Every structure is written in structure tokens, then in C-alpha cells.
Amino acid sequence: MPLSEEELRLLEQMERALVQEDPKLASTLRGTTFRQSARRRAILAGVGFAVGVGVLIAGAYFTLTVLGIVGFVIMLGCATLALSSLRGQSAAPDPRQGSDPAGKGGFTLIEGGRARKRGPRMRHTSSGSFMERMEERWRRRRDERGGY
């Protein structure tokens, strides 16, 4: 059940009063946003990757294969963590802007995938063999380029 306008107004007043009385408590209650925590994980993963490079070089310098493998595993894990954190950071909605720009509840559209630069292509539904399709493509290209 949604809050009435009066209840929302009272809630906002209480929130403003809390921020005025104890700003440190208010910031603690707000917590960190997802973007901030993803950025922090990515930075820590970068530091861990540098440590992994150091361990790998130390393993090569001291000719300790196990140490080199451990360094590589550290680098691989940190790179994976950094990439997943950065992907999550770019895909996460900004909570300060609200989850729905239209103001309605529900899902929002997220643009993704490859953008089409050309018009729609004609799709052949022929069940020809692979070689027949390749020959057809070759003929179309030759015709488009003027016969050579």
C-alpha cells in the first residue's frame, strides 16, 4: 500500500530533521551506493593484480615454478574481479536518480547489444548447403562492386 502525500511529507520532514541533528548518523544510515562499492572492488582488484605481477616476476627470478603459478592465479582472479566490478558499475542504476525516470513502477528499458548501422538485411530462409550460401554471398558482393 503506497504512502499518502501527508505521510510522504512527514517522512521527508523527519529525514531532514535527522540530517540536521546528526549528519554523521544520517550518512551512516544511507550507506554506500552500489557504484561506490563496485569502484572500490575494482581498485582493490587492480592493486591485487599488481601484487600478482610481482609474485609472478619473483617466481621467474628465483626459478620457483610454483610461485610463478601462484602469481598468475592471483592476476587471473583479480582481473576477473575487476572486470565483473566494472561491468556491474556501468549496469547499475544510480539510486540518487531513482529507479524509474518516468515515475511509474516496473521495468525500464536498457539499451544493449550491437547497434545496427545499416538498414534491415534480407534474410534468406533457404535450406541450402553451406557452400551454396557462400556462393550466393560471393555473387551478391561481385554484383555490388561492379562485376569484379
From TrEMBL:
Domain of life: Bacteria
Segments of skewed composition (Basic and acidic residues): 132-148
InterPro entries associated with the record: DUF3040
Keywords, sorted A to Z: Membrane, Transmembrane, Transmembrane helix
Pfam families: DUF3040
Region called Disordered, residue ranges: 87-148
Biased composition (Basic residues): 115-124
Regions crossing the membrane: 42-62, 68-86
Name listed for the protein in its UniProt record: Spore wall synthesis complex protein
